[in-house]
Every structure is written in C-alpha cells, then in structure tokens.
Structure prediction request, 429 residues.
Amino acid sequence: MLKKYNYKDLGSEQIRLLVTRNADNANEIGARVESIIERVKSEGDKALFSYSEQFDKVSLNKLFIEFDEIEKLASKIDESEQKALEKAYYNIHKFHLAQISEEAKVETTPGVTCWRETRAIEKVGLYVPGGSAVLPSTFLMLGIPAKIAGCKEIVVCSPPQKNGSINGYIAYCALMLGIKRIYLIGGAQAVAAMALGTESIPKVDKIFGPGNQYVTKAKTIIQSTTDTAIDMPAGPSEVLVIADETTNPAFIAADLLAQAEHGTDSQAILVSTSNKIVEETIIELEKQLTLLPRAEIAAKAIANSYAIITENVDEAMQFSNEYAPEHLIIQTKDWEQLVKKITNAGSVFLGEYTPESAGDYASGTNHTLPTSGFARSYSGVSLESFLKKITFQHISKAGIKNLGPTVETLAELEGLKAHANAVAIRMRD
Ligand SMILES: NC(=O)c1ccc[n+]([C@@H]2O[C@H](COP(=O)([O-])OP(=O)(O)OC[C@H]3O[C@@H](n4cnc5c(N)ncnc54)[C@H](O)[C@@H]3O)[C@@H](O)[C@H]2O)c1
Ligand SMILES: N[C@H](CO)Cc1c[nH]c[nH+]1
Ligand SMILES: [Zn+2]
Prediction:
C-alpha cells in the first residue's frame, strides 16, 4: 500500500530520490531498444513482421489496414460509443482550434520589418498505444491537432490486435479524422520505422504520442540519432494530488487509481496537510481496488507510489513543483490561491469536481503530456506541436541605411569581414 513520509523529515537527497522516476531496468530497456532500432534500420519490414510475432504474438501478412477494412470495423461499434467519441472529438477540436494565433509584423527600426509565419510540419507520425489497453482517446488527442495544423502526411502506427487488425474504436476515430491507413506496428519498432522509413512505412519529420518505456526510450534515442524530432518523452502515466483536511478521501483514491490502472510503472502521489485524510485515503484505496478489473496492475503501481504529509499547502506545492507531475490535481478549499504558485506540471485539475479522467477523454485539453519530470522543461501536445514558426524580414533601401552601420560594427568586432561587406555593398550610393 501507499508508503507515508513526513515532508519535514526528508533531506534533500531523499527528496531527490522520491522525485526520480528511473525504471529499475533502465539499462536493459535501453540496450533492447537500441538493438530494435538497429534491426529496423538494417532489415526494414522484415524486422517489423518479426517483432510483431515476438512482442505482440501476431503473425501478420500485411503491415497496414486500409479504408475498406477501417470502415467495416468502425460500423460495428455501438451508437452510444460513437456518440461519446464524437463528443470527445468536438470538445478536443474546439479547444485546439482556439489555439490558432496570428502575430503582428514589427518594424524594429524605420524600414526594417520582421515577422513570423506559421507552417505545418509536413510529415508527422502518430503513435497510438495499444499494449495493455487500446487508447482511441490518444488517437483523437494526436489526430485532431495534426488535422487542424494542416499536416500533409499523417502516418499512424498502433500495435496489432491478436486477430491481426485494429479495434473498432480506433477505426471509428480514423473515420472521424479522415485517416485512410493504419500501420499495425507497436513499440520501439514503430518509432524506429517512422524515424528511418522502411519499404512500407514512410519516414516522417516528427513523431508524436505516448507509450510504455520501450516506446519512450525509442523516441529519445531517435531524437538524438536521426533527423526526426519528437514531441516529448511521454511515458508511464503519473498523477500528484494535493489535498487538505477538507478533501474527500474517496475522490482522492479514485483519482490515484485512475492513473495507477494504466500500468505497474505508473505513479500516483498524494501530498496532504492532513494525516487523517491520508489514512482515510489508504482505506478507500483498498476498498476501491477490489472493484477494479485491473486491480493487480493498479495495486503494483500504488505499491511504487507514496504519500507525503506537509505542514501547509505551500509546502505541498513546493514538493509538487520539485516532482513536476504529468497531472496535478489540487483539491484544497483554497485551490485558487495555489494556481500562481505552480511552476512545473503537465496539466492541472482544479477543485473537487474536476477529475483527471475528464482531461484524459473529453473536456478538451490534450492528454499527451510530459512524464518523468520532463514537465520541468516540456509542454504537452498542442496545436503548436504540429507547427513551425518561420521568421521573415524585409529591409528597404532607407532601412539598410539605418541598420547597416550597427551590423557593420558588430561584424567587424567579431572579425567577420564578409558579413560587414554584405551590408556595406548595399549602402553605397
Ligand atoms: N504520458 C502520456 O501522455 C500518456 C498517455 C497515454 C498513455 N500513456 C502511457 O502509455 C503506456 C502504454 O503502454 P502499453 O504497454 O499499454 O502500450 P504501448 O503501445 O506503449 O506498447 C506496446 C508495445 O510495446 C512493445 N513491447 C512490449 N513488451 C516488450 C518487450 N519486452 N520488449 C520490447 N518491446 C516490448 C510491443 O511492441 C508492444 O506492441 C502506459 O504506460 C500509459 O501509462 C501515457
Ligand atoms: N492518463 C493518460 C495520460 O497519462 C491518458 C489516457 C488515455 N486513456 C485514458 N487515459
Ligand atoms: Zn488515463
């Protein structure tokens, strides 16, 4: 069950260890992923067929399914399920559409105009996880901003099901998104295939999407070894709940378990000013766990998690900022006062009636978020993730006369005469 610590008893080294989420077998995962990437590089599709047999236990005869099959699979899902996916689509679309922004042109010096224009990243790869649970919600979280951005080529990979196909929910999302082909590949091999290209899988410019430790490791390796970019490291799910003496322990337990059920390597942290609430949450966790189909997975994740008791909410916030959680839930009576004090978090859920699950599925925000402390430096996926901003400038004849001497002086002081000449040559009458 949840281990308990008193914040005031923790030294800086203990805090450092508590906020570090290194997997026990990180070296083994790294070595395995490197060899998967190498094999995809040298063998292409052949390696992909082989890894599907090895890891997904499926013998595929083709690496993708196309529109006819997607349409057939999508038609089989219940109307109520279609409606729920459509409602999620609508809200996610509305939130991401509002992220379109225009920037003004700026005249920095008379005759010198600078501005930025936005262009979509042309070829993007979306990874939709499907190992322990199939996540159509993730398909919407990635596909909707990619479509709004106007990406020309959208390559989608998701692990094959045991029948060598995909499930109807993924198919229904593909129909809504207008995506006509889905590649049946999972894990590190999918990331490698999209970064390097194979006979069947097109190489892309940027890879998006969450996944387990193999997927996340593959993304970080390809980011530094190929010219394909990634959105961020978005690995095993995490949540940190800040609670005080007024928080409902049943709500806390429910929110902790919602992330714990994703995988045994998920983390669910409670930081509370009240020991009583922590004790009651532990009782609630035990009660609610017994009702979950994925109780075994969730129990293991909870065993890897902990509760911290602090003197006040400011101390709780301080720990949360050090931990930099993927999801931060603040359920204290004065949650408004803590908002400005948040410095590191992927996505924040405020108040008693804001479960994190709402953001996972349908409130509108994106659930593809940085984990493992990367919320200190990365944002979650948004429309911007699929866009590039290109800077432009135009300088008139009068403008170069105004700016030229400054550029010449700076070029001279750096000893770069050719730079100075490129300006001087234009300033002669
Ligand atoms: N951070 C986020 O934004 C976010 C969002 C959604 C989900 N998630 C996380 O995504 C993860 C999904 O994980 P998953 O496993 O269910 O699906 P997944 O699709 O990420 O991984 C499945 C694939 O892993 C590979 N694999 C499995 N065992 C392997 C092994 N021993 N060696 C090499 N490769 C192996 C297989 O190729 C398989 O197809 C969860 O940890 C969940 O918490 C994170
Ligand atoms: N909580 C996950 C992000 O860490 C997203 C998700 C998908 N489905 C359910 N939840
Ligand atoms: Zn979730």
Observations:
- The pocket of nicotinamide-adenine-dinucleotide (ligand 1) is lined by residues 32, 55-56, 129-133, 135, 138, 159, 186-188, 210-212, 214-215, 234-237, 262-263, 266, 326, 367-369, 371 (CB under 6 Å).
